[in-house]
Structures
1.
Amino acid sequence: MSKILVTGGSGYIGSHTVVELHNAGYDVVIVDNLSNSNIKILTQLHAITGKWFDFHEIDLQSYVAVQAFAEQHSDITGIIHFAAYKAVGESVAQPLKYYKNNFYSLINLLTSFNKKIDFVFSSSCTVYGQPDALPVTESAPIKKAESPYGNTKQIAEEILQETTSVTPDLNVIALRYFNPVGAHESALIGELPNGVPANLVPFITQSAIGKRGPITVYGNDYDTVDGSAVRDYIHVVDLAKAHVAAVKRLEDKKAESNYEVFNIGTGKGSSVLEIISAFEKTTGEKLDYKVGERRSGDVEKVYGDVQKSKDVLGWEAELGIEEMMKSAWEWEKYIKANPF
Ligand code: NAD
Ligand code: WQD
């Protein structure tokens, strides 16, 4: 059984990926500093899988700590690197906080695990900015980042590409996620936003449960189906499964080169108003919303070309907007009744 290190494994996408790795028969070890997650996730993961996962509270920004961890865990064959800060607005206010965490963590891992290693990196569709053509393919040009957060993903991809080109023992797959939403079907794990959610779906569920006021739709004058902005929303469980596919591809030595990139989305765009209406229809809850100004830095529309993921990675999304809305709502109700 191969041992996979999941950094950021108690976070939103990481926790769902731990479940899918376990279901696929992998031995999982988690590293997280709990800066944006809760230790109670381990109890939730146990309730879902029946397993207590090997957890290490380590700050990946510390080279000494990562080096010691790597020495003690020489049996790790693969790493899925989720751990990073991800709040776009905060990254504009505190760029160094983002550059320090997102780069130190990546570089400390790459230098400490300096042996034959498989590495899956969490990248983002943010690297495309507003693409010239849609659906956007992996070969589309990388646009100047709108935020320090986006810049950390662009530069991290470059760091990985340049490092793999001189390190044959390092095998990397970078997954460019579109907009992850939803929660595990058990409703025992899900997204835990810090403070007022900046992202659409957590704001919708918090508004519906009465924790927030009405939603503001940021702009209704875009050149889209109904004037509101369009994104490619992807169920977090589908996204988690894409990581298992990536780990398998690296393990089975199927990669065509030691640096590959895949879009991870559904290939389908949905507008903000369509998401609001899908939430109402799926859950029976009525949402209160108003239309406001466009949000600075937002792109008009983006959705991914997912042909390469289907053909090469052998992965495709299975869950639709209904499952995304329903599971996000079940999780919101669960966390209200069982606060962490
Ligand atoms: P998250 O904040 O829920 O999870 C990240 C986890 O990493 C948290 O548990 C946090 O405590 C941990 N962490 C952060 N810095 C750390 C450090 N120095 N040492 C150890 N642990 C640390 O975020 P998420 O939504 O699960 O995102 C996971 C990854 O996916 C991130 O790299 C993010 O940039 C990327 N991503 C997320 C989205 C999204 O919309 N959620 C979209 C594209 C890419
Ligand atoms: C989706 C749509 C908003 C809230 C961000 C990051 C990106 C990636 C995913 C990590 C947009 C609109 C939102 C609200 C609204 N993360 N909206 N009212 O902006 O596509 O992407 O998360 O890599 O880097 O930028 O996601 O969920 O914030 O917004 O109208 O209260 O919903 O304007 O059109 P976004 P989001």
Note: DSSP finds eleven helices and 13 strands in the chain.
2.
Amino acid sequence: EDLAKLKTAKVIFVIGGPGSGKGTQCEKMIAKYGFTHISVGDLLRAEVLSGTDRGAQLTEIMEKGVLVPTSVVFELLKEAMSAKIDTANGFIIDGYPREVCQGEEFEKEITECQFALYFDVTDETMTERLLKRADTSGRSDDNPEIIKKRLETYHKLSEPVLAYYEEKGKAKKIPANGNADDIFAEVEKVLKEAGY
Ligand code: B4P
């Protein structure tokens, strides 16, 4: 019954490497357009803090800079969407899909996304941003060794996700090495074209 409702959801995916500015741009989109934001990274960190068995296993995985099993991510995502479906005015799902199979599963079980926003940033810039955030984030994965690993994981598993949506004609690629306001101006153009 829940799944039937979810199938009616409007969904925009936000993808890009670690430190590509997903969270930052999502905040701006929520403020301007009133979308409902789901950050998969935040869901996973909340699960860790909740002290469940599922959470305990996640800490270890995230501190290795690798991806959490797709089945776990999908369950958390469905729970989070279900909790908000009655009030949601379109979802932006941030940090998903991070592997092609995640996108395929979502499409099969829930719905096709409207499009995937992709933030295109060099490894150097991503690394710089994450190291800067490390001063204040308290995130155990914001350290040089794990950042390197996260970038590797990203190139191997998440970059193919861009190609997957390009093939479907659904990728919206945004150059995102610059400052957050200039990047947001590009995001606004994409959303305007999409009718928002
Ligand atoms: P996430 O929480 O998604 O972490 P992230 O990739 O680092 O992105 P985040 O949104 O935090 O950073 P942002 O680029 O906005 O994932 C963490 C871990 O969770 C993964 O490694 C993985 O293990 C697991 N996980 C998450 N999703 C998963 C999935 N679908 N499947 C399996 N596992 C999953 O910003 C970074 C910094 O840059 C910030 O400090 C920001 O202020 C700064 N910044 C942003 N834009 C800037 C700009 N234009 N100029 C200067 N600085 C900027």
Note: The chain has nine helices and five strands.
